[in-house]
Amino acid sequence: MQKYDDLTEFVLRMGDSALIQAQRLCEWTGKAPALEEELALMNVGLDLVGQARNWLDYAAELIGDGTDADALAYRRDERNYRNVLMVEQPNGDFAVTMLKQFLYDVWQFHMLSKLRESKDDRVAAIATKSLKEVTYHLRRSSDWIKRLGDGTEESHQRMVKAIDDVWRFTYDFLQLTEQENALIDSQVIGDVRDVAAQWQTKVNAVFVASTLTVPKPAEPFYLNSREGVHSECLGALLAEMQYLQRAHPNASW
Amino acid sequence: MSQWTLFEVFIRSKHGLNHKHVGSVHAADAEMAIENARELYTRRNEGVSIWVTPSAQITATASDEKEALFDPSEDKVYRHASFYELPEEVGHM
Amino acid sequence: MYAQLVETGTKKLKTLDEMGPEERAFQERIDAEIKIEAKNWMPDSYRKTLIRQISQHAHSEIVGMLPEGNWVTRAPTLKRKLQLMAKIQDEAGHGLYLYSAMETLGADRDEEIDKLHTGRAKYSSIFNYPTLNWADMGAVGWLVDGAAIVNQVPLQRTSYGPYARAMIRVCKEESFHQRQGYEILLHMMRHGTEAQQEMVQDAINRLWWPALMMFGPSDEHSPNSAQSMAWKIKRHTNDELRQRFIDQTIPQLEVLGCTVPDPDLKWNEETGHYDFGEIQWDEFNRVIQGHGPCNTERLNARRNAHENGAWVRAAAVAHAEKKQKAVA
């Protein structure tokens, strides 16, 4: 497994998470529950690929060995991917997809809000630009959680099941590492230490409004995205996403 | 019958301009209609403000009322500035 | 052309003298290039034909997302991924603009979509062909969107106001689709490996004839054309549009350095147009009748999306009703 310096690792984590979340959204093409929703899901996906590209461009510059965003996206194995575990999980039904989107949006929203205050100009700039998009993503996904949680008996049951399936991965983005704490102490990145608490408050509020029960905080167990120990499904996702670049290593697209 | 309600969409494309009818969307409620209208009609920066209203709430003139409603204004030329002739030395008014 | 073989329900054109006063006023209005609007009187057959034509056009946009969806998870670079996502999203949008125009005629979107799902409504034959390599994303943009644009540009002047306005919006947004497709191919031809260049030629070989079929049957086999032209919901014949497409596409093909699989294709100095070979109409008819390579997959995909989404749509309605009650 490749390890980079603390800032690069952090930037990769933000970029990889956006990219993998977008890749899962792409899988919804032609399958959305309403035509209006096809547009909406793709819009969020477009924003996230754009964000991923900004983060990965920066990561490539930090690495500085001539790599670029495409090489990082399309030539790294799953052990070198740094995305949070939740976004790689399969889409499941629309309840699972929207729940993942919502939990990710809340995290992104609070992370990016703080990252705007980073001393590192690039991190601050990417965060400022991304936050506008994420503010809208969060509004939409919160609305859907309420519609599904407090909709029909069936939709409520599906949300309950979705929470059962997905909640266990949330520890992975709520806890900070020693290296991330060091970046905060040196003010390279904004102080994201409160994000876990802010995330919990927002999730609680939306769940309550959606007649959903908030589970106990998830406990870390074995899987660790920062060490590249992902769920099995990430390998298959990357095999699909990276197929052309892997099959034609000398090609230009 | 459609499961979601049909809403008419009006967009203000720039500050200072009127909202203009652009089309319709389907949505379960007005909030969703606004979101769907934003996704559909402002993908290329076309709007600064959106109105939606259920299509069923629109009352329109019938086509056979055109003469009664609009023709009478045709001969009221005195409502237009160009009707009034002023000597050139008055300049622009 | 996204609307092929649209039934008008009339086999013989009426002269103005044979029309009643309302229909005569309607036809004179069309002849004078004055738009027909939703609340205006119109013959029932005009209304029904338009609903068929616009819904067929809209269904084509929506089904047309599927062959591209086949590659969106495998786009080779972040830039190509963004472009393809934006294009697919536009297609959903164009489908919605068109359904919206159709609903002004009193048609119900869910009912028309149900006709698609139950095989009672058509969509363009082209989307029943598979997309088998990445160059297909280029060839679809260049040839399929290119053919669609040739058809849609004149429809901006179609007689029905809401349809014409939807087409103006569609044409404006679609201008990037064709260029995007062509650029994918040109880049692979100029900067790609041999394997990539083979992909490009392979994609053109497979999609060339189906793209020409998009314009529908030849004029002598288009019994509905005369009425549609009189109503100005069709502004040029199938053969005129097909010829226009070929004439503008072959020079672009030459820039690519590729060929089309038609030994009879050659420039005709006398007519000022390209001559081309015979289209396999039996293949076209098979695809239109539901027996193309992907008809089953495309329809199943649309049906599944609709059925799997039923509980989501119902939940949204139930929630809206609860909110409404809480306010009341």
UniProtKB/TrEMBL annotation, chain A:
<keyword id="KW-0560">Oxidoreductase</keyword>
<dbReference type="GO" id="GO:0097266">
    <property type="term" value="F:phenylacetyl-CoA 1,2-epoxidase activity"/>
</dbReference>
<dbReference type="InterPro" id="IPR009078">
    <property type="entry name" value="Ferritin-like_SF"/>
</dbReference>
<dbReference type="InterPro" id="IPR011882">
    <property type="entry name" value="PaaC"/>
</dbReference>
<dbReference type="InterPro" id="IPR007814">
    <property type="entry name" value="PaaA_PaaC"/>
</dbReference>
<dbReference type="InterPro" id="IPR012347">
    <property type="entry name" value="Ferritin-like"/>
</dbReference>
<dbReference type="GO" id="GO:0005829">
    <property type="term" value="C:cytosol"/>
</dbReference>
<protein>
    <submittedName>
        <fullName>Phenylacetate-CoA oxygenase subunit PaaC</fullName>
        <ecNumber>1.14.13.149</ecNumber>
    </submittedName>
</protein>
<dbReference type="GO" id="GO:0010124">
    <property type="term" value="P:phenylacetate catabolic process"/>
</dbReference>
<dbReference type="Pfam" id="PF05138">
    <property type="entry name" value="PaaA_PaaC"/>
</dbReference>
<dbReference type="InterPro" id="IPR052703">
    <property type="entry name" value="Aromatic_CoA_ox/epox"/>
</dbReference>
Automatic annotation (TrEMBL), chain B:
<protein>
    <submittedName>
        <fullName>1,2-phenylacetyl-CoA epoxidase subunit B</fullName>
    </submittedName>
</protein>
<dbReference type="Pfam" id="PF06243">
    <property type="entry name" value="PaaB"/>
</dbReference>
<dbReference type="InterPro" id="IPR038693">
    <property type="entry name" value="PaaB_sf"/>
</dbReference>
<dbReference type="InterPro" id="IPR009359">
    <property type="entry name" value="PaaB"/>
</dbReference>
From TrEMBL, chain C:
<dbReference type="InterPro" id="IPR012347">
    <property type="entry name" value="Ferritin-like"/>
</dbReference>
<protein>
    <submittedName>
        <fullName>1,2-phenylacetyl-CoA epoxidase subunit A</fullName>
        <ecNumber>1.14.13.149</ecNumber>
    </submittedName>
</protein>
<dbReference type="InterPro" id="IPR007814">
    <property type="entry name" value="PaaA_PaaC"/>
</dbReference>
<dbReference type="InterPro" id="IPR052703">
    <property type="entry name" value="Aromatic_CoA_ox/epox"/>
</dbReference>
<keyword id="KW-0560">Oxidoreductase</keyword>
<dbReference type="InterPro" id="IPR009078">
    <property type="entry name" value="Ferritin-like_SF"/>
</dbReference>
<dbReference type="Pfam" id="PF05138">
    <property type="entry name" value="PaaA_PaaC"/>
</dbReference>
<dbReference type="GO" id="GO:0005829">
    <property type="term" value="C:cytosol"/>
</dbReference>
<dbReference type="GO" id="GO:0010124">
    <property type="term" value="P:phenylacetate catabolic process"/>
</dbReference>
<dbReference type="InterPro" id="IPR011881">
    <property type="entry name" value="PaaA"/>
</dbReference>
<dbReference type="GO" id="GO:0097266">
    <property type="term" value="F:phenylacetyl-CoA 1,2-epoxidase activity"/>
</dbReference>
